[in-house]
Write a structure and sequence with these properties.
The protein contains nine helices and 14 strands. By secondary structure, the protein is of the alpha+beta class. A hairpin with a 6-residue loop joins strand 1 and strand 2.
């Protein structure tokens, strides 16, 4: 039996919550952070700010009010207690949150950041939201219901991934910051055949570009559910293809790599590269 879908009223309430947190918690901190409000986690470029922590707390509380009894898995909470990841596969309903995706950009005053929220039921993503606080617009996806771009005024447009791209014509994103020196060199050499590659440092906008036909691929060696669950659903609902170590992506996966592409042929070409 497939996972129960999210009701439109619940989706609307979660979207309103994310917009409110973006407006009241995140944007007031943008280009307004004191040095003491920025810290490092795993390495000097893996940043967390007061906006990340305050936004996650507000989003978690709001999600629990909208979906009573749900589990919440947020990036910052998991950094303190990795055992929380077990809720993704085991919970009847789990809300997965990246409060400020692209924190490195956010902390440096670059408007390439977003809020990512996904709802998983029975271990399967049924709803995804990729929100841009700076522009107050978002991409949302319901399993089986397509992916749409929505503006602050309510204008809604169904999204479709770009078809026909091959490795030689592909444009996309490489996670150069996630590889060390030799690994970075190997990654760049493997992707020499592509037309264009860049590093946005923001999964939210990478998936938005893919789902809206503005890019052809994105690869990642980190399987963090808060980076991928919502975006994978949006891309698949827009007609794209996602491979997780050659198989189907699921938000409970913890190891391996993700290949997100505008079409299956391109995804398989990328999977065959030595990277």
């Amino acid at each position: 039996m497939s996972a129960a879908l999210l009701a439109e009223a619940e989706a609307a309430a979660l979207t309103a919550l994310v917009r409110q947190v973006g407006r009241e918690v995140i944007l007031p901190r943008f280009r307004n952070l004191a040095a003491a409000e920025i810290a490092s986690k795993a390495d000097p470029t893996d940043l967390v700010t007061i906006a990340d922590r305050e936004a996650e707390a507000a989003l978690a509380a709001g999600a629990r009010a909208i979906l009573p009894g749900c589990e919440v898995v947020g990036e910052e909470a998991v950094s303190e207690n990795p055992a929380l990841l077990g809720a993704i596969a085991g919970a009847e309903t789990c809300v997965i949150i990246d409060p400020v995706d692209g924190t490195f950009n956010f902390a440096r005053g670059l408007a390439m950041f977003g809020v990512i929220l996904a709802v998983a039921r029975g271990g399967e993503t049924v709803f995804g939201l990729l929100y841009d606080p700076a522009m107050d617009d978002w991409v949302l996806a319901h399993r089986g219901g397509g992916a749409h771009h929505v503006t602050a005024s309510g204008a809604r447009r169904r999204l479709c991934a770009r078809g026909g791209a091959t490795l030689a014509t592909a444009e996309g994103s490489l996670p150069l910051d996630l590889a060390d020196g030799p690994g970075r060199t190997r990654l760049m050499r493997a992707f020499e055949p592509v037309r264009s590659a860049r590093a946005l440092r923001c999964s939210c906008h990478e998936y938005r570009m893919l789902a809206s036909g503005q890019a052809d691929f994105s690869v990642n060696s980190s399987m963090n559910a808060w980076d991928h669950a919502a975006g994978v659903l949006a891309l698949e609902e827009a007609g794209g293809c996602v491979l997780a170590d050659g198989g189907r992506y699921a938000p409970a996966l913890r190891g391996g790599r993700v290949i997100a592409a505008a079409n299956r042929g391109l995804a398989e070409e990328i999977a065959a590269l030595e990277w």
